[in-house]
Amino acid sequence: MIKVLVVDDEASIVKLLQFNLEKSGFQVVTAFDGKQALEMVKSEQPDFIILDLMLPKMDGMDVCKTLRQERNNTPILMLTAKDDELDKILGLELGADDYLTKPFSPREVIARVKAILRRFQNTPEATTAPQEVLLQFGDIRIYPEKYEVFCKDVKVELTPKEFELLNYLASHQGRVLTRDQLLNAVWNYDFIGDSRIVDVHVSHLREKLEDDTKNPKYIKTVRGLGYKLEG
To answer: Which PROSITE patterns has this protein been placed in (predicted)?
Structure first.
């Protein structure tokens, strides 16, 4: 059973999400502040985290940042009461995989959790069977079943969305992909043209894969259009 950690200081929201997640077949553990959230991640090892932005003791941004600095790539859906683009972009820059603005529908939360998990979960065979290199370009190898990427034989830690974006670019190597195409393919729903989300994740990939981020070898910007991956 997939374990979801719900972190929010509003008991009514925690109760609402817990009820609907458990009804959908998830196991749920809860936390009500940022420090407790980090403790629960270590003790419970959840498969998914729903994380409120505004939390006592340590806010959601700092929780997300701490987890990513510790190379914990558990998928994170961030909740925010602020309808502020900067908050959303900052959350994504720190490693959140997605965001929702309050008020939200529990059905939408569950749909997004499932969408992210579909991309992130490993199959049992992937943990034991030898992996065939399905995608390779330059010094980079991608193992889609294990969600693993190696650059110059060194494993690169990517968040789920970073991996999905790289995998999609690699699957369409040499083709120019618009930001809207990438939003639809990787995020799988309407971001109302918020192309900065794509730009932020491309920037993260370049930092992790490119020797020179100002002159990238692999992920090229096609001005006025989008991006393409070159081998």
So the answer is: OMPR_PHOB, RESPONSE_REGULATORY
